[in-house]
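Per your request, structure below.
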């Protein structure tokens, strides 16, 4: 009977240690993905700003001219 309880305790400790390791690995991955996501958000913001700046140009009078279509359309 004592041997069974001891074996069960060892098994539970082993499972707990495995779960702790798995949780630590998953946490590291989540942190890395969060960093990567933030970098992507920053890149999208920069690209959006560049596109916005390139889609309008100044015509010399201070007014921006939209470059989607030539003026004769």
């Amino acid at each position: 009977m004592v041997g069974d309880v001891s074996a069960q305790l060892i098994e539970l400790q082993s499972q707990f240690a495995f779960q702790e390791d798995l949780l630590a690995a998953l946490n590291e991955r989540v942190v890395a993905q969060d960093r990567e996501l933030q970098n992507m958000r920053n890149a999208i913001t920069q690209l959006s700003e560049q596109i916005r700046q390139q889609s309008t140009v100044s015509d010399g009078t201070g007014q921006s001219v939209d470059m989607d279509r030539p003026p004769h359309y």
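The mean pLDDT is 87.

Regards,
D.
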